[in-house]
Amino acid sequence: MASSDSDADADDRRPHALDTFTRRGVTMMFGPKVLTHPILLAIDQGTTSTRVIKYELLGFHYKERDGERKDLRPIQSAQHPHKQIHPKPGWVEHDPEEIIENIKKCYREVGGAFTMAVGITNQRETIVAWDSETMKPLHNAIVWCDARTAEIVSRFSEKEKHMVFQKTGMPISTYFSATKMRWLLENSKDVQKAAARGTLRFGTMDSWIVTKLGARRDSNNQELPNVHVTDVTNASRYLLMNIETLEWDDDLLNLFGIKKEWLPRIVSSAERVSGWAGNPSVTKDKEKIELEVYGILGDQHASALGHRLREGDSKNTYGTGCFAMRNTGKTITRSKRGILTTVCWKLGKDEEAEYALEGAVAVGGECIRWLRDEMELVSDANEVEECAKTVTDTGGVTFVPAFGGLFAPHWRDDSRGVIVGLTRYAKKAHICRAALEAIAYQSMEVLEAMELDCEENSKSKKRKKTSSSDGDAKLLSVDGGASVNDTLMQIQADVLGKSVRRPANIETTAYGAALAAAIGAYKRGVYSWYGNSKEPMTVRDVLGEDNQNANDGSKLFESKSTKEERAKGRSRWEDALQRTYGLDTYCDKEQSYNM
């Protein structure tokens, strides 16, 4: 961290920029609207775009007002896409500087100055390498779904794989950050030179954002060193953190050949990790953006917090990929079915970590984009749903979009996509519906594997089954861009044989990041600067029993399928799945190249 604990405490006693501003009157910035609620920002840095959403904190006012429930209300947002770079088949990269510029654009468009706290949520596993002196990236970011490290993955023995799984809860895969760092060290001359100079820094997108945009002033307005941190949820995806100690593990570092000084310091998901931004009205550089960061969560963990998942609850996010997560509380449940054991969150440096089971599907909404952009079957994503609704089934067509391999629960790097069951009768509508079914069946596999793992964990500990945390959950909460597709949600309910609940506000990822920032600000005493006697946003306000229906206006999709129909569909899916194995032999091989 940029400052010592004593410096941080001193910072928390100073007047805040927003406090100074509100005393002068807010109408100069917000026109006729007088600000009565604290303002928070959520930066949602995703795989295809970056968003910034401004929230006001309800139930807490600069002036006392009773009867308002504690929650966050979105009031403004901005979004900018970034380029997807594909140097070779199976390779995916992003320009780290483009992403920073997009954050700045969004920040200015929503009027981000004078916010009380900032929460960051980000695409996980995607790795950035930069030089700590120049603050410039040494290579494009290697994205989580990139498959170039398959050869590196194949080097490890079964004993080494077992050790990694026991310490991290995850298998060695192209998915995670450590193999991407290893590839950069072996293939990028710029990374090698920075390592030799001692200026190499690695980090996921949260680390990169905080390093580039985190506030760097102490209580005396003096500039501090750059901050190099990541939170426990992002750190749990490196394959380098021990999920029991929540620290970088020496055995893992040695195995992958990564030095600890190249890595960010691990912090909790809800605490201040930056310095003080100062008052923008008196800052010399009016264009400079300095974020006061109080919360960081990987995207799926932020989504889980946005759904306010308690122990035993499950959610699924339908984005570029699909990500199912089940909160297992303070219990580390190790999977026997290819499901990941991960940190759910740690809401404060003095709080206990909560854990989760997670199943990641590499290709979710991405297969819809593939139908549009590569196959040109449709002109826009909405047309897929319209086509799918014109038929009652797929006509026997099954689509497995294993473009770069399969993630949970199979973990097959040698798989490639297939469309099977084609007949002269098959038409565009059948393929569109098969694409939606592919998303639902992949999600089904990971959700069912989680339930079985929880059931076995309960039996092994001889616990009396008292809640859904020990087995079957009857309701699935959903979010993500593709969740607006009613046909997909109904197919998901039918495939699972369970109800699917979609909240009115599906932006749960950004919402969760803002909640983490609100909790982090409370823990640092920020609210006391405003002289309000009310208790501010706490962990209980977010996860207490009275707050489980925070998103009013949700839509419920009830299953309409029979047990026989589900069994027949599963058999057809599993048959197609088997046909994907080993097809990498016939696809272009990734070759090493030097930059």
From TrEMBL:
Q: Which GO terms describe its molecular function?
A: ATP binding; glycerol kinase activity
Pathway assignment reads: Polyol metabolism; glycerol degradation via glycerol kinase pathway; sn-glycerol 3-phosphate from glycerol: step 1/1
Origin: domain of life = Eukaryota
Q: Where is this region: Disordered?
A: 457-476, 545-573
Q: Return the InterPro entries for the record.
A: ATPase_NBD (IPR043129), Carb_kinase_FGGY_CS (IPR018483), FGGY_C (IPR018485), FGGY_N (IPR018484)
What the entry lists under Gene3D superfamilies is as follows:
3.30.420.40
GO BP terms in the entry = glycerol catabolic process; glycerol-3-phosphate biosynthetic process; triglyceride metabolic process
Q: Name one GO cellular component term.
A: mitochondrion
UniProt keywords (A-Z) are: ATP-binding, Kinase, Nucleotide-binding, Transferase
Tell me the ranges covered by the Carbohydrate kinase FGGY C-terminal domain, including all copies.
Answer: 316-520
- Carbohydrate kinase FGGY N-terminal domain boundaries: 40-306
- The leader peptide range reads none
Top-tier EC class: transferase
Record EC number = 2.7.1.30
- Name of the protein this chain belongs to: glycerol kinase
Which species is this UniProt entry from? Answer: Bathycoccus prasinos
